[in-house]
Amino acid sequence: MERNQERLCGEEETQRANKSELEEKLTTLQGDLTRSKQEYDNQQSERTRIGRLETETNEKLADVYQRLLQAGVDRNESEREVKLKETLSSLQRIFPGVRRRVIDLCKPTQRKYETAVSGILGRNIDAAIVDEEKTTIECID
Length: 141
What we know:
Helices cover 80% and strands 5% of the residues. It is mainly α. A two-stranded antiparallel sheet has the order 1-2. It is rod-shaped, with a radius of gyration of 43 Å.
């Protein structure tokens, strides 16, 4: 009986020690869980912030890209316009009957009509206006 009681006391001590260890592990794991949840929340908010920043940056990039494309188109149109004006001025020097281009005579009063006028005139928009048919034939030859 005494041995049995000693054995039970020993088991009780072992169980208390195990309980104490398990409680410490539980406390540690709960702390780790809290830290992990906080870190997860921080990562989620950072991810959301980065997503917004990426969206804003992509919008700005698209805007700059469109402006660059428009600048390139404007530059090409400007270069083309300069060449056409030089050609017309040289034709005017050589042939006195050459007046000006069709587009110079058909300038719309408002910018919103430019597309319509361009569509109507088509490829003849840059055609030269001359006094007589004879001047036209001389220019072509």
